[in-house]
Amino acid sequence: MLTATGVRPTGSGSTARGEGRLMSAEYYRADSEDGDSIDDPSEDALFMMLSDLNGTDNTFVAIRPDQDDPVWFASVTVLAGGGYEVVLHDTARNEHRSTVSTRIHDIARDLTLWMADRDSPGP
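^ that's the sequence the OP posted. Answer follows.
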């Protein structure tokens, strides 16, 4: 099984369980229930994190800007009956969507596109 541990997208400060924080994410951070985290994850890194989800001890991935009081977040949770619930929430745009999917490749792609459309955190 592939894991997101140790994944370092080009130009980012990825971290993973046990490595310690290298630097803050420039835009956003993905964290899974089992403690894995990736700063500014690529579509491939998200796919790997989603591939590691299971119904027992690693049931979700949460993605949000690496800042206090973020205005948006996304989450992917394993459903007991199969598939994944994807929640996209952006208070600045009054947006809250929840969908169900079984294809992690599509989820990773859609998350990457949705996050790219969010406002970048300012200084």
